[in-house]
């Protein structure tokens, strides 16, 4: 029966070849000549051919076939060709720095070639001595353009300052690019943050998230509402296609069911936005933490008395609520080995050093001792509810007193049991550390927290379930780790340590989280 199936299979591909040979540019034949595939070569990654045939797209292991036809690549002088498109925030500094670091790590020479007529397009050539081994072709524009290039099958890697949107996921699936919402299709390579910026002489020092939304929506348009001068507020934002600007709308306006007001000044780059705010005494900008120039960064506050400052540690732990993950998206097809090695490098410790030097926040897990978390505990004391709240806070403090918090937080999508994109990346980061034996001989405690809505007992139960779900996700991802060498436990303290005021849906969402504490 097996021989019969093999014969039918071979005959099928011979028929396919006969039908399409006249119009196609490659023919792949098995070593024994029994199977023949004819079609248009879509790609070759040094190991596998991707061929479009009359009956659909096929991926064929190159080790088992011979290629003939004018479209066949050279097997001896193969050069990996990788197209990268999207966000200028990522593409102008961070990705070039990572490629150069990757080249050095692998004893390769990197050379940047820029197109004279289009500075937004450039190529990094990686050489082993005089021999090219790969080319990274960049199209630096914005997140929208990156996803458009992906959907047009013109990008192997998309640089994005926001998550892919449902309509883009649908279009990608229809185009045969796979489920781009799947955790395997994206990774967070670094963190930035959205920060409110004003001119250095502006007397206002703090705004709440609600205040910012009211200004963005045009409901408040004078600084006097916040204790400033009696002067109109000019709002400065990045362009409408900027991932950072779109993330602002997704994170701030949509949860508040608000729309952006009409009087907004748009800027083509972070640098242009910062320069405009620095010279506008009545301006308010939402910019990038990585580039604030000569502006003043406002503290985020709330009616419950919280004070939240943008700093490397608060962004890394996601205590600062407007953290902006920097994504790389890849379609469901094989990259050349060089591309896969590069993506693996982006999670490595040497890459995290490159990310820090480039001015962004890395994702290397760090242990934060309790004495560096005074602001968090002070905020918790301020909003503790009656004697029962203080007792819960004391119990939590006793339990965590001699432990350190890891700089990895986990949150869930609104109204869902699914981890959000940053948290899914954190799962992989922690799983990699467990596989590397980083925490051998130590104990990791998955600690769940909730918002303050509803009965305390119910919140504690929900927080425990969330912590258990994160632990199970990490255990599943760390498939090569020896988990007998590390202790993984679950604890929960419900509403004992909120990270934002509970007066809004946004604040309650921030408070529902899982932290990792280690001893």
TrEMBL record:
Name of the molecule in the record: OmpA family protein
Domain OmpA-like, residue spans: 399-519
Gene3D superfamilies in UniProt: OmpA-like domain (3.30.1330.60), Periplasmic binding protein-like II (3.40.190.10)
One Pfam family linked to the record: PBP_like_2
Keywords: Membrane, Signal
């Amino acid at each position: 029966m097996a021989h019969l199936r093999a014969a039918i299979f071979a005959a099928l591909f011979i028929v396919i070849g006969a039908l399409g040979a006249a119009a196609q540019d490659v023919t792949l034949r098995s070593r024994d000549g029994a199977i023949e595939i004819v079609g248009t070569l879509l790609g070759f990654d040094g190991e596998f051919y991707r061929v479009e045939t009359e009956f659909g797209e096929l991926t064929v292991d190159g080790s088992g076939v011979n290629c003939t036809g004018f479209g066949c690549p050279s097997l001896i002088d193969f050069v990996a060709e990788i197209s990268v498109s999207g966000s200028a925030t990522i593409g102008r500094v961070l990705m070039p720095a990572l490629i150069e670091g990757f080249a050095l790590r692998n004893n390769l020479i990197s050379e940047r070639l820029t197109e004279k007529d289009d500075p937004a397009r450039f190529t990094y050539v990686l050489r082993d001595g005089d021999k090219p081994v790969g080319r990274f072709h960049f199209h630096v524009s914005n997140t929208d353009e990156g996803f458009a290039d992906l959907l047009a099958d013109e990008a192997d890697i998309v640089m994005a300052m926001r998550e892919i949107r449902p309509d883009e996921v649908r279009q990608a699936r229809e185009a045969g690019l796979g489920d781009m919402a799947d955790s395997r299709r994206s990774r967070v390579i670094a963190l930035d943050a959205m920060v409110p910026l004003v001119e250095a002489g502006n007397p206002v020092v703090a705004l709440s998230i609600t205040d910012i939304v009211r200004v963005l929506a045009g409901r408040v348009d004078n600084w006097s509402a916040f204790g400033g001068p009696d002067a109109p507020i000019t709002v400065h934002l990045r362009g409408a296609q900027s991932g950072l600007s779109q993330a602002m709308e997704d994170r701030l306006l949509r949860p508040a069911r608000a729309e952006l007001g009409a009087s907004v000044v748009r800027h083509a780059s972070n640098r242009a936005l910062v320069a405009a705010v620095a010279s506008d005494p009545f301006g308010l900008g939402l910019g990038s933490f990585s580039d604030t120039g000569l502006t003043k960064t406002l503290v985020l506050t709330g009616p419950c008395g919280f004070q939240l400052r943008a700093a490397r540690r608060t962004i890394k732990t996601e205590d600062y609520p407007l953290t902006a993950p920097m994504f790389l998206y890849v379609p469901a097809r094989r990259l050349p080995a060089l591309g896969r090695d590069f993506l693996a490098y982006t999670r490595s410790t040497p890459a995290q050093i490159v990310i820090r030097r480039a001015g962004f926040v890395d994702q290397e897990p760090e242990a934060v001792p309790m004495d560096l978390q005074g602001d968090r505990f002070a905020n918790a004391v301020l909003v503790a509810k009656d004697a029962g709240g203080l007792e819960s806070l004391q119990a939590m403090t006793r339990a965590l007193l001699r432990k350190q918090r890891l700089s990895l937080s986990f949150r869930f999508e609104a109204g869902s049991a699914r981890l959000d994109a940053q948290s899914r990346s954190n799962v992989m980061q922690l799983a990699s550390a467990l596989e590397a034996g980083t925490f051998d001989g130590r104990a990791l405690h998955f600690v769940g927290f909730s918002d303050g809505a509803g009965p305390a007992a119910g919140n504690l139960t929900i927080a425990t379930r969330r912590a258990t779900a994160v632990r199970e996700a990490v255990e599943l991802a760390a498939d090569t780790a020896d988990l007998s060498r590390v202790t993984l436990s679950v604890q929960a303290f419900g509403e004992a340590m909120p990270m934002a005021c509970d007066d809004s849906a946004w604040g309650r969402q921030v408070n529902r989280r899982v932290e990792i504490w280690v001893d």
